[in-house]
Amino acid sequence: VCKAAASYAFERNIDKSNLDHPHANIDNIKVVMEDFTRAINEVKPAFGVSLDQLDLCMPNGIINFGPRFDRLYETGLKFLAQVHESERTPLLSILLEGSAGSGKTALAAKLASQADYPYIKFISAESLVNQTEVARAHKITQAFEDAYRSPLSVVVLDNIERLVSYVKIGPRFSNEILQILLVLISKRPPKGHRLLVVGTTSSLAVLEQLELAGENGVFTTSMHVPYLSQPEVETVMTELGCFEPDGIRQCAAEIGEGGIGIKTLHMVTEMARSMSKGSITPADFKQCLRSYGL
C-alpha cells in the first residue's frame, strides 16, 4: 500500500509534457491522504476479509421470507457466537444443504459477513477454474493455514461437490482434494485460535457417499435450506415491491406444490420486470415462469 501511495505521489509531480523533469524536487515529494486512499482502494489484501466477494454472492440482498428463514438465520448466528465465546469448541462446521437455487450461497455469505471476524475466506469452484488439481489443492490448504494464524476465522466452502470435481458418470472426483477437505474440515485450529467452517451443497447424497456429510461425515451439523412455499413466495413478492398488489396471490399460485428457490424466483422476477411497462402482472409472471420451464 505504501509503495502504491508513493507512486501516486510521484505521479502528481510529474510534468506530463516533459517526463524527464518533475515539477518539484524529488526530495520534497510527499504522500498525502489522497494518495494513500487511492492506494488502499487499489491494493486488495491477500489476508483478511474480502467484502466485495461476499457481496457478489448476495446480488439481491437477503429477504426474510418467514419463520423458516428466522430459524435458519438465528441458528447460524448461534454457531457464530459459540465459536466466538466458547473455549471448549474452537472448531465448528455447518453444512447448508438444499436444492439448486434455494439461496444457500447467499445465506452462507450473509453469515460470514455478520461474523465480524478478522479472517474470512470464501472458496468456490469458480475461483479455482482453469487451475490444475495440485494448484486447487494448494489454494484450499493455504486458505486453512491462513485461518490458523488468525484468532477468529470463517472459511466458506461453496458448492463442495464442484470443489472435488464430482461427476456422476463413473462416478469420478478428485481424491486428493477430497482427502484434504476430510482432514481440514475436522482439524482443530492451534490453541488460542477458533475456526468456523461453512459449506454448501446441492447434492447431500453425494457428500454422504464421500463421507463429508451424514453420521460418518466431518461436518458438525447440517441445515436444510428449503424451497419457498406459496405464502413465503407472497412475502418475497411483497418485499420486492414490483408486483401488482392485487395480483401477488395469483402470481404465487402459479408456482407448483414443490415450491421454488428464492434465487430462481429472483431470476424469474427480473425477466418479468424487464418485459413489464409497470408493475408485474400475473400474466407476465406466468409467461416468464414457463420460459424458465417452471
From TrEMBL:
Its main location: cytoplasm. It is found in: Cytoplasm; Plastid, Chloroplast. Binds 1 Mg(2+) ion per subunit. One of its GO terms (molecular function) is ATP binding. It comes from Hanusia phi. One of its GO terms (cellular component) is chloroplast. The lineage of its organism: Eukaryota, Cryptophyceae, Pyrenomonadales, Geminigeraceae, Hanusia. This is Vesicle-fusing ATPase. Its EC number is 3.6.4.6. Its cofactor is Mg(2+). Residues 90-229 form the AAA+ ATPase domain. GO terms for biological process: Golgi to plasma membrane protein transport; intra-Golgi vesicle-mediated transport; SNARE complex disassembly. Pfam families: AAA.
